[in-house]
Amino acid sequence: MADNPSTGETRAPSPPPDARAAKRPRLESPTQTTVSPPQLSKSQKRRQQYNALPEACSPDDVLWREINDVLGEDYVNAALADGTDRQSPFEYHQELEMQVVALCSTGSALATSAESARPWVVVVPFCLPGETIRVRVFRNARMHSQADLLEVVAPNPAFRDDTLVRCKYFGSCAGCQYQMLPYEKQLDLKRDVIVKAYKNYSNLPQAAMPPVESTMPSPLQYNYRTKITPHFEAPTKAQSRDPSNPKNSTEKPEWFNIGFNRVGTHKVMDIEDCPIATPIIRETLPAVRANAIKNLYTYKRGVSLILRDSLPPAPAPVPGADPADALAADLATTHISVTDHRGHVRERVGPWLFEYPNSSFFQNNNAVLPSLTSYVAARIAAAPGPGPAPTHLVDAYCGAGLFAIALSPHFRRVAGIELSTESIRAATRNAALNGLGAERVAFRAGDAADIFRAVGDFPPRETVLLIDPPRKGCDAPFVAQLLAFRARTVVYVSCNVHTQARDVGLILEGSRADAGAGGGEGEKGRGRYVLESVRGFDLFPQTAHVESVAVLRLVDAEEGVEDAIKETA
Ligand SMILES: C[S@@+](CC[C@H](N)C(=O)[O-])C[C@H]1O[C@@H](n2cnc3c(N)ncnc32)[C@H](O)[C@@H]1O
Predict the structure, then answer these.
(1) CA atoms within 13 A on the CB side of 25
(2) pLDDT digits (tens, 9 = 90+) for 377-418
(3) CA pair distance 478, 506, nearest whole angstrom
(4) CATH architecture of the domain with range 45-160
(5) Which end of the chain lies in a sparser environment, N or C, as judged by fewer CB atoms within 10 Å?
(6) Is any ligand 1 atom within 6 A of the Cβ of residue 363?
(7) Cβ–Cβ contacts within 10 Å for residue 453, how many?
């Protein structure tokens, strides 16, 4: 039974025994084989979905676990067991005064009320711990309600400074969550997100967890975002036919919105400027919007526009020219905005040049990338204890070659792999553009797990494995191959610290389970991984997102290595 927004009716049937037993599911390897489920009718499927707990590591699951932290697991489990987990004490559209007790990793606040008939969490955007707020409930769900913020009744001056807000759409647009927070506080909160993610998802004992380092700031806190994707819905048939909507008009009809989603909805808001985007993107946005308005009635379905900050196309190469001159010219030049999905983008990260198709992946905050790549290089070099210096780098999920190329001076050979063939074409070309021969830096298209077949001649103890997977993290075959290969150092970069924490936990546990394997009697074991450091990077100022870098090191039975790791961490 779905929530009924018109009546506020949210009483659910008691969860079936399987959902009760599920309570807090143990984290499993992401692609663990499951028995095929029996055929279910539509209503059975709906019921099953309604009763199921959220998928592990999904945003709903992150919220669910943090609701558990607020209410206490025993209380939540008792409610799941007796079927009262959806019996909200609040009515649809009820207005309430509440206290914010925590900030969720998703960026929303978790609030409770002493007046509530039973302990219950209300999730509200744009408010901060310690604040008293007035809210209106718009949805009731399992052990929590969702509500709109009506008013901050008592702000928390230790956190909130509304004079910092730079965007007039802040508070309605779903893009930013933290504009009212001083930047130092944003960085602290992002560190807390990493701490919570490892607590909730890694299954690691506290002793195995190094202190999470302070979050590396972005040199730019506004005007940093090198890519934005405003979108719009196509006009309906009725709107297209309506004679009061003149065709080819440059006037934007009132009902037509180009921009970003309104918070908590899939509805597009009309947004004509975005202050976190780079200056050239902000300058170009009005023309891109005007073009969409002019062609409005030609669109048959929704459109996602793209604007990327780029250096202008490269001038023709001059034989024998000093690369430093090209770098100086790029630093001095005026940027352009690439708006054609089939166009190409040109970008420098420190001295390194990258060109890639507009529609493919590249990190969206150019300003922070030099500190990110330098930090990774420094951590790799800081290998504690005895052992040879690393000579080989494997860059799995390499995109257009950012890490492979930027880290190449530290290695004799580099191999990268990536699923997208167009990104791999770009990576290969980027290696050449930066004067790196294919015998030293080579890329191949394919699934990340396939890289281990291609690097059979890389010495594992002198190899660094860098992984930077998409939000869903690594799959089980990749983790199995990683464990079989046993690179001495693994650097795990991720824009989703929850899947990172899950995977790091699985890698550490997996390596411990087979640490002695592969060695006969009297032979040395295979070593096991320890988590040496975790640090957040603020690639996304003003938002709740954080990029996280975890460094794992293989520890042999050698004495003193673990102590040395603790000292460097
Ligand atoms: C977060 S991006 C990182 C790219 C690159 N490291 C960078 O920083 O620019 C993740 C990349 O993984 C690629 N990818 C997704 N699934 C993959 C898979 N199974 N095997 C290899 N690459 C994959 C995506 O195409 C994307 O380019």
Answers:
(1) 17
(2) 999 999 877 778 999 999 999 999 999 999 999 999 999 999
(3) 11
(4) Beta Barrel (2.40)
(5) N
(6) yes
(7) 9
